[in-house]
Specification:
heterotrimer; A alpha+beta (548); B alpha/beta (309); C alpha/beta (249); A: 548 residues; alpha+beta; Alpha-Beta Plaits; 8-stranded mixed beta sheet; C: 249 residues; alpha/beta; Rossmann fold; 9-stranded mixed beta sheet; two-stranded antiparallel sheet; 13 strands; 31% strand; transport (chain C); ETF_b (chain C); ETF_beta_N (chain C); Electron transfer flavoprotein subunit beta (chain C)
Chain lengths: 548, 309, 249
């Protein structure tokens, strides 16, 4: 029997939604002078270790949670001073859009360039001061259910199991954390969230969810090129027609810029390598002007949930809630998910607290959440932006962009129809014979780099001797199906070099280098056979992102 | 003022690390004295007296120093220290053991594991496992310094013999005693202690082919290592892994065979004195850090290497 | 017997230190910090000695800014009984650390002091030895085995080329090497319990120690990158170069 601990609320994941929920719960408990036990488990080695985001942060939700956030020292230090939007036409040509034609959602006055990892570190401190128990280094690996099928809590993973499944000297059994309500805030494509979708059929009424893969680097640049507050966005080259996505480059504090590329995972060309697209992107003059002579400091990647309003699942079930990107609250029209994730966590906290106050013990579903959600600015905002993503995917960057300008600036998101985009991302991939290989240039080790030296900068590590956390339902599929049909695309979509096909005398082998994993979840999303399941490795493993 | 260097030896033979420490000391000043403390260690003192640059050898011959116990050694050295501006020893497990005690007894700092002498009071040393180099200025009157051997050449032999002076003082603290020792008798040296390492990567193809490396290793008295790719592919066990997540090594000679040279591997061996790369892919990143590169099929050249050594 | 264990807060061993832009130090802003791995082994060894009945109490002490209480709590979660934090603004030099610790030892009178052989930030490998000298007690550095036999502690040490065992009078100092043990994980209930274990905060002034400056850090630089050498055309040429040019075989 595993040991267990009881809490009023257990939250899985110390990201913006989970921590905002934890803080909001405790604030209400303090106001009501009520005893409340809230625990947050986080698979990263510390709060913020696995957090990766652009990020431009709209402070709306933070303002509501901590009206004094500036005085309290929240790390939002760089207000956006200028927005620039580009269409890259080729490897050296670009058009800069005049501000007038830019969709309103892409204007960033009042927003801040910040590290979401550092914001989470700060939120974690606030939560602990409010009395929340945060346990970094503990991965929630399993959902626990009551006999009636409602969620009872989670179990943390066993530690100290060898690759072959044997208990090592350091073995420590996982623990059961029971709660009246469990909030799942794992971020995009959380692996427990995935189970909840199936178990409670949470996505039966919404459109298919869509994803992007975000790749990001942090650079030290020379002071003469640094313009704190300058924001660049753009689309077009190097992504070819039919592949959605766009780049960002933000001048943040301490003479640093962040640069990144988001590639929609609905891409069709199996030769596409998001990592290599990102590397060659940095050679474009629009980006190179800042990066030349600068030094790369960090690298990371993370999938984002971008289906928006149309893809929002039911967020409640008996015993708990899905919040933040685990449910898909990101506003893709703004390319922002922090304020929406936080707000979803705060709304959940309010609903959970009122239920607890009414003596509920979690057995009943929190049906009141839906009303609370629909009455909030979060719902209104997501609804207004509902057509943005589908328009870009359906009509491409230019026509889609025009549509979005009309939709967002002239009609304010109130067009009387909704564009739908119902084909799941993994099913979009076409066979290799339809395409010819993409000739990616060799990295020059100045602006562009290879995968492994990039992974090195993510400080990723996993205990070597543990079972592989990337599970294949069928061991044979990568070589027997994916290789002939798609030249095993995992080799290219994985931004960390986890997957390799090795050929030797005895034939081709599929090699999984699980230690490199950045926990981005792309494999779980994009594998055309849906054969790869990402599960949590031993707690504390994965990247250690500073300032990302 | 003179500089005192403490010799590393086993009562019979002066250990090579002493010679590197002497070279480092010679960059701090000219008047170099070498202390040989041991039991029946006259032979060592004779060897020491013939090293270029040594002006005087001090010999302290007593049971108290037989195993160079830190408790006794530190008292002996402290006793001699007032005549010296620098006290220098190799950063071996023996030197690392007693030198900080000397520093504490003299109420001065120790500058550990230096890799460069900038001036007589300023030194560079690696910190953060070699990810950064700190340059430190000592403000103490007596500078206690340990020296990383691989960073300095060995001092040469001299035709002249320095005079040998006998130290009669015996410092026996009587708070510690030697019980036993167990000299590693493995056929091959430990990876982290080896002077020569030959490592294989994924290019080895399979685990059996590592015997090709072992034949070379036998000839060179080398340890055999592997890259993570070779470990992950299941060729060899994890304890052979050199690199970021494996062992960090810095031998005199590192031979990388069929290793592409991912940064994770380089992180574990880039401080080696000489790096040799053998790889059939001439674009492999390993060649960017190799002193000597050979673009060739390892299956052809490894047997040749074994034959010709 | 009481055991005193010293612990240091350092950069996590998975994180690469990066030299800052003005070459004055490494950049640790928002970097993951952790218990120095060698100190973690020291804590584990002390707890094992307590579990085996040899020790009665394990006291951990750390020196540094307030944040290092986190590492004391981690040690308490692993099984230590109480903590002492000596609060300083910066990280004092090793000799100052040894002097502060000497005061703690005099007050606590432990039978054994277990320390990491070195911290993975400064890589000095000296504080344990310095403390032993100041206290005039014996030391067993680079320990791979610690045993209490009679009234002595036997320490097997990892020395160049093998193992050496020494017998030390008590009290003694042991500094740990990697193979001494494999530290356990802290369990969730123990992490919660650790928050309520006693932790005393003192200052160097409380202990009557004035921190002295013995050295000045002039600069911190990234190590020089290796340059590509030459290509040889044959094994014969390679052997010739290694013998006559590099002189390594």
């Amino acid at each position: 029997m595993r040991e267990s601990m009881e809490f009023d609320v257990v939250i899985v994941g110390a990201g913006p939604s989970g921590l905002a929920a934890a803080c909001r719960l405790m604030q209400q408990a303090k106001e009501a002078e009520r005893e409340l036990t809230v625990c947050v488990v986080e698979k990263g080695s510390e709060v913020g270790a696995h957090i990766l985001s652009g990020a431009i942060i709209e402070p709306r939700a933070l303002e509501e949670l901590f009206p004094d956030w500036k005085k309290m020292g929240a790390p939002l230090n760089t207000p956006v001073t200028e927005d620039q939007l580009f269409m890259l036409q080729s490897d050296n040509k670009s058009i800069k859009f005049p501000n007038l034609v830019v969709p309103k959602t892409m204007h960033n006055q009042g927003n801040y360039i910040a590290s979401l990892g550092n914001l989470c570190r700060w939120l974690g401190e606030q939560a602990e001061q409010l009395g929340v128990e945060i346990f970094p280094g503990f991965a929630a690996s399993e959902i626990l259910y009551h006999e009636d099928g409602s969620v009872k809590g989670i179990a943390t993973g066993d530690m100290g199991i060898s690759e072959s499944g044997v208990e090592k000297d350091s073995y420590m059994q996982g623990m059961e954390l029971h709660a009246k309500y469990t909030l799942f805030a794992e971020g995009c494509r959380g692996h427990l969230g995935k189970e909840l979708y199936q178990k409670f059929d949470l996505d039966k009424d919404n459109d298919a969810q869509h994803y992007g893969l975000g790749l990001k680097e942090l650079w030290d640049i020379t002071p003469d090129k640094h313009q704190p507050g300058l924001v660049l966005h753009g689309s077009g080259w190097p992504l070819s027609k039919g592949t959605g996505g766009g780049f960002f480059l933000y001048h943040t504090e301490n003479c640093q810029v962040v640069v990144g590329l988001i590639v929609d995972l609905s891409y069709e060309n199996p030769y596409l390598s998001p990592f290599d697209e990102f590397q060659r992107l940095k050679h474009h003059p629009v980006l190179k002007q800042y990066l030349e002579g600068a030094k790369r400091v960090s690298y990371g990647a993370r999938a984002i949930t971008k289906g928006g309003f149309n893809a929002l699942p039911k967020m409640t079930f008996s015993g708990g809630l899905l919040i933040g990107c685990n449910s898909g609250t990101l506003n893709f029209a703004k390319i922002k998910g922090t304020h929406t994730a936080m707000k979803s966590g705060m709304l959940a906290a309010e609903e959970v607290f009122s239920a607890l106050n009414n003596g509920c013990n979690g057995a009943k579903e929190l049906t009141g959440f839906e009303t609370r959600f629909k009455d909030s600015w979060l719902y209104e905002e997501l609804k207004q932006s509902r057509n943005f993503g589908p328009a870009m995917h359906k009509f491409g960057a230019i026509l889609g962009g025009t549509f979005n300008f009309i939709d967002q600036n002239i009609c304010k998101g109130r067009l009387p129809f909704t564009l739908r985009d119902n084909k799941v991302d993994y099913a979009q991939l076409k066979v290799i014979s339809d395409y010819s290989p993409i000739d990616y240039p060799k990295p020059d080790s100045k602006l562009s780099f290879d995968k492994l030296s990039s992974v090195f900068l993510s400080n990723t590590n996993h205990e070597e001797d543990q079972p592989c956390h990337l599970k294949l339902k069928d061991q044979a599929i990568p070589i027997t199906q994916n290789l002939p049909k798609y030249l095993e695309p995992a080799q290219r979509y994985c931004p960390a070099g986890v997957y390799e096909v090795i050929e030797d005398e005895s034939g081709a082998h599929f090699q999984i280098n699980g230690q490199n994993c950045l926990h981005c979840k792309t494999c779980d999303i994009k594998d055309p056979a849906q054969n790869i399941t990402w599960v949590t490795p031993e707690g504390g493993g994965g990247p250690n992102y500073p300032n990302m | 003022m003179a500089i005192l260097i403490i010799a590393e030896h086993d009562n019979n033979i002066l250990k090579a690390a002493t010679l590197n420490a002497i070279t480092a000391a010679s960059q701090m000043g000219d008047e170099l004295h070498l202390l040989v403390a041991g039991l029946d260690c006259n032979l060592v003192a004779q060897q020491a007296s013939k090293i270029a640059g040594i002006k005087k050898v001090l010999i302290a011959d007593s049971e108290a120093y037989q195993y160079q116990l830190a408790e006794n050694m530190s008292k002996l050295v402290t006793d001699l220290a007032s005549n010296y501006c620098h006290i220098v020893s190799p950063a071996t497990t023996t030197g690392k053991n007693f030198m900080p005690r000397v520093a504490a007894l003299l109420d001065v700092a120790q500058i550990s594991d230096i890799v460069k002498v900038v001036s007589e009071n300023t030194f560079s040393r690696p910190i953060y496992a070699g990810n950064a180099i700190a340059t430190v200025e000592s403000l103490d009157a007596i500078k206690v310094i340990t020296v990383r051997g691989t960073a300095f050449d060995a001092a040469k032999q001299s035709d002249l013999s320095a005079p040998i002076e006998i130290i009669t003082a015996v410092h026996d603290a009587q708070i510690s005693e030697f019980v036993s020792e167990e000299v590693a008798v493995s056929e091959r040296p430990e990876l982290t202690a080896a002077k020569v390492i030959i490592s294989g990567g994924r290019g080895m193809g399979n685990g059996e082919n590592f015997t090709l490396l072992e034949s070379v290793a036998d000839k060179l008295g080398a340890a055999v290592g592997a890259s993570r790719a070779a470990v992950d592919a299941g060729f060899v066990p994890n304890d052979m892994q050199v690199g970021q997540t494996g062992k960090i090594v810095a031998p005199d000679l590192y031979i990388a065979v069929g290793i592409s040279g991912a940064i994770q591997h380089l992180a574990g061996m880039k401080d080696s004195k000489i790096i040799v790369a053998i790889n059939k892919d001439e674009d492999a990143p390993i060649f960017q850090v190799a002193d000597y590169g050979l673009v060739a099929d390892l299956f052809e050249v490894l047997p040749q290497l074994t034959d010709k050594l | 017997m009481k055991i005193l264990v010293t612990v240091k807060r350092v950069i996590d061993y998975n994180v690469k230190a990066r030299v800052n832009a003005d070459n004055t130090d490494v950049d640790l802003a928002n970097t993951k910090m952790a218990l120095n791995p060698f100190c973690e082994i020291a804590v584990e060894e002390a707890i094992r000695l307590k579990e085996s009945g040899t020790a009665t109490e394990v006291v951990v002490v750390s020196i540094g800014p307030k944040a290092c209480q986190e590492q004391i709590r981690t040690s308490l979660a692993l099984g230590a009984d109480r903590g002492i934090h000596i609060e300083t603004d910066s990280m004092p030099e090793s000799l100052n650390v040894a002097k502060l610790l000497a005061k703690v030892v005099n007050a606590e009178q432990p039978g054994l002091i277990i320390m990491g052989k070195q911290a993975i930030d400064s890589d000095n490998n000296q504080t344990g030895q310095m403390l032993a000298a100041l206290l005039d007690i014996p030391q067993g550095t680079f320990a791979s085995k610690v045993e209490l036999i009679g009234d002595k502690v036997h320490v097997t040490r990892e020395v160049d080329g093998g193992l050496q065992t020494v017998a030390l009078n008590i009290p003694a100092i042991v500094t740990t090497d990697l193979r001494l043990n494999e530290p356990r994980y802290a369990s969730l209930p123990n992490i919660m319990k650790a928050k309520r274990k006693p932790l005393v905060v003192q200052t160097p002034a409380d202990l009557g120690i004035e921190l002295k400056t013995h050295s000045k850090l002039l600069k911190v630089e990234a190590p020089a990158e290796r340059q590509a050498g030459i290509k040889v055309n044959s094994i014969e040429e390679l052997i010739e170069k290694l013998k006559n040019e590099a002189k390594v075989i």
